[in-house]
Amino acid sequence: MKNLAINNGEKSIKTSLPTFRDATGRSLGSEEIEQLTEVINSGSLSFLSGAKSKEFERDFANLYGVKLAVAVSSGTAALHTAITYLNPEPGDEIIVAPITDMGSIIPILAQLAIPVFADVDGETQNLDSAKLESYITPRTRAIVVTHIYGNPADMDAIMTIAERHNLFVIEDCAQAHLAMYKGRLCGTIGHLGCFSFQQSKHMTTGDGGMVIANDNERFGRELRQCSDKGWPRNKSGRDHLFLAPNYHMTELQAAVGIAQLRKLVDMVEARRRTAFYLTELLTSLPVRPTPILPETKGTFFFYTFRVDPGLLKVSPMEVVKAMVAEGIDCFLGYPGQVPIYGYPVIKDAKTFGTSGLPFTLRDARLQGDFSASLCPVAEKACKETVCIWWNERLDRNHVEQIARAIEKVIHAYLY
Ligand SMILES: Cc1ncc(COP(=O)(O)O)c(C=O)c1O
């Protein structure tokens, strides 16, 4: 144990590895600059007069084989556009996974709907389809399915349940660009697919997002208007048909998006290749990489594995601290050491003034006390899952260094 960097031993990884936080781990270059230059020279930075957002949407829709793509300002904005489209009544329920980003929940609360947290599968950490139906009530309107870590959720079972109960399905693909489920792209299986292009994602525009769909009109409103102030732009003059925010993507983001999208297949394949290599190198260690469902293709937003606390002399948190000291960019538990309902915005209903809305709506049905163990499987996963930040610029040599550092830490702490 003395040789661990955390105990002042020599650090295993001596030079820093590529990181998504800067140019070392991102594929941004002349292609993006060329696109950006065109936008600046055009003088049109807004989608209203520019051509780049429209081009980016067309390219994204073509890649995904869908009729419509709407470019927006973030992944949260994409999900809010989706929930605005659904137009729930205040107090309607939307089922979500507790292992996800707050960006999946904010839009539900903002539309005064109630998030209902359905526990996850103990292995994949995606929604547990065997338990899903037990969360449905007469007030359930939709399911937001996060494909966590880039691993496809159990979509056949989820869609069968959704159809049986006439529920709308929104796929949260913020971590799952080009993930495949039984030959179909995640984001095209439910009714809507939502993506994020935030700095850490498989492709980035800094911040940014996309909604994809095969229909532009449902629930009495048009999808595009749900991120555009409820404004029917095809009519002359001004009109605002319903309450909706302005979530336009700028032409600058779209320019970067066009160039990034052209690299997406290669960037995703690079993430997969190196992640599989790490799995291979870790086979002799008592760690369990998060499994991926058969007939699916995960795309490794993070590289995740579980450490069985019973096998080690220290807690998973101590393992992570030692890994960080060795030079690995990692942390314990996503979205932290508690599921998403463990944060004040939900747990303490820090929402609108002191009202506690939507949880305090007169006819809202409350799932329970969010500070209690609502989803025990998710709670355990948050306390045991090691998440390593991943990116397309990691190569075999980097992965070997990561594997050696993990091995050093695990061996030091094994009983
Ligand atoms: C699963 C998931 N959903 C939604 C979001 C929200 O995306 P953004 O940060 O672009 O708003 C994220 C971003 O981290 C995410 O990982």
How would you characterize this protein structure?
With 415 residues, this protein is of the alpha/beta class. It has a domain at 30-259: 3-Layer(aba) Sandwich (Aspartate Aminotransferase, domain 2). The protein is built from eleven helices and 16 strands. A seven-stranded mixed sheet has the order 1-9-8-5-4-2-3, sandwiched between helices. The chain has a four-stranded antiparallel sheet with strand order 12-14-16-15. A hairpin with a 2-residue loop joins strand 10 and strand 11. Helix 1 packs antiparallel against helix 7 (251-281), helix 2 (52-64) runs parallel beside helix 7 and helix 7 crosses helix 11 (396-413). Residues 74-76, 100-101, 103-104, 146, 172, 174-175, 196, 198, 207, 209 line the site of pyridoxal-5'-phosphate. It comes from Caballeronia sordidicola (Burkholderia sordidicola). Belongs to the DegT/DnrJ/EryC1 family. GO terms for molecular function: pyridoxal phosphate binding; transaminase activity.
Quick recap:
The chain is an alpha/beta fold.
Defining key terms:
415 residues; alpha/beta; Aspartate Aminotransferase, domain 2; seven-stranded mixed β-sheet; four-stranded antiparallel β-sheet; binds pyridoxal-5'-phosphate
Radius of gyration: 22 Å
Total count of strands: 16
Helix percent reads 25-40%
Structural class: alpha/beta
Q: What low-confidence regions span 5 or more consecutive residues with pLDDT below 50?
A: none
In one word, what is the shape?
Answer: globular
